[in-house]
Design brief:
It contains 12 helices and 14 strands. The chain has 345 residues and is of the alpha/beta class. A 7-stranded mixed sheet has the order 8-9-10-11-12-14-13, with helices on both faces. Helix 4 links the parallel strand 3 and strand 4. Helix 1 packs across helix 7. 33% of the residues are buried. The C terminus is likely disordered. Bound molecules: flavin mononucleotide. Flavin mononucleotide (FMN) binds next to loops.
Length: 345
């Protein structure tokens, strides 16, 4: 959330505090970026913001803060029928950090209740590839504030939640557009850290993929087939999880965790119709690259008769050893090179 006014005696912070209170029940984390506290100088970078090369620490800090947000809500007054110069400057200083983020507004003012400032800001936001939402809160100060505070009103609180829900909804569907991961082996694939809302779809993909394993190994007694959504959610406390979407559809996933000096990789899966294009190898390489400091080797397990998986891991440089009657364990020293790089599963 961005508080745009900076002048001494401003009402902006009181409006921001009201907004935070009104949306307190919503499942979001709010970072209040108060432009008065941040004190961004007027654009003072020698390079064009689209280069992303910043010489000043204040710009880098602003870049990190905006980068970390999935969505933006601006609390802005109207000054002379437009947005405050501080807000325009905060936009102008960065570029790609804003892209594909939904933006909602709480505008306030006298006669026009901040609506002209908001219209102007929306126009600027679209140049930065932001996605303005329709829901807006427009506060006419004389009617909605008293003694420098927003007057309590259930309708106003509901309007604030309306803005928040709309930006949250748009933030979910635009997430693949915001990903800046390395391009994948095929068009339209985006690799991200799995989030809570990915897990139901991930569980369906997991079951689908492990049916093949069940057939190959002639057993239904496989943990990935039995796992419930509750268990999958709980696994997030010990495992890091990644997923790959292709044009929005979840088509691959994997997880990993530290186990002593090993980086234990598991549940590498690719939707059957997407196999053979190098997606599994690419995802595996990405997961390996996330191994923490101190990792000496990568380790994973698969079914003894899961020949396609074993081939993929051998191509990636893993050595196979029997683990038990049903499964094999595969290891690879952390810094060894893959043996081959042709597309696999
Ligand atoms: C320089 C300036 C210009 C203003 N112009 C407008 C305006 O065009 N329309 C409006 O409705 N209110 C206008 N106002 C009134 C502000 O909306 C009101 O003072 C509000 O409290 C400003 O927000 P702030 O206290 O957070 O700075 C203006 C106020 C200032 C200081």
């Amino acid at each position: 959330m961005l508080v745009a006014s900076t002048r001494p005696g401003r009402i902006g912070p009181a409006i921001a505090e009201w907004f935070v209170r009104a949306i307190a029940s919503e499942p979001v984390t709010v970072d209040v970026a108060d432009l008065a506290e941040i004190g961004l100088p007027l654009l003072d970078e020698p390079g064009h913001p689209s280069s992303g090369e910043y010489v000043h620490e204040h710009t880098r800090a602003w870049s990190r803060r905006v980068d970390a947000a999935d969505a933006v809500v601006v609390i802005t007054p109207e000054y002379n029928s437009g947005m405050p110069a501080t807000l325009k400057n905060a936009f102008d200083v960065l570029y790609r950090e804003w892209a594909w983020k939904p933006i909602g507004f709480v505008g306030y003012g006298n006669t026009s209740a901040g609506t002209r400032a908001v219209q102007m800001a929306k126009q600027v936001a679209t140049s930065l590839r932001m996605v303005p939402v329709g829901a807006t809160v427009a506060l006419r100060l004389a009617e909605s504030t008293r003694d420098g505070q927003v007057i309590p009103s259930a309708d106003r609180d509901a309007a604030a939640r309306g803005v928040l829900r709309e930006v949250a909804k748009v933030a979910r569907v635009t997430r693949p557009l915001r990903s800046r991961e390395t391009p994948g082996p095929v068009d339209g694939v985006v690799l991200t850290v799995a989030e809570s809302e990915d897990l139901p779809e991930l569980l369906v993909l997991q079951r689908c993929c492990w049916v093949q394993e069940a057939l190959a190994n002639e057993t239904l007694d496989l943990a990935p087939l039995r796992e419930s959504l509750v268990e999958l959610r709980a696994s997030g406390s010990t495992w890091q999880q990644w997923c790959v979407r292709r044009d929005g559809r979840l088509i691959a996933a994997a997880r990993a965790r530290r186990a002593g000096t090993a980086w234990e990789i598991g549940r590498l899966m690719v939707a059957p119709d997407q196999a053979g294009q190098g997606i599994g190898s690419w995802l595996l390489a990405h997961v390996e690259a996330q191994a923490p400091e101190g990792t000496t080797h990568h380790r994973l397990h698969t079914g003894r008769r899961s020949t396609r998986n074993i081939e993929l891991y051998e191509r990636a440089g893993y050595t196979v050893a029997p683990a038990d009657e049903m499964s094999v364990s595969l290891t690879r020293p952390r810094d060894s090179a893959p043996t081959q790089s042709r597309p696999g599963r």
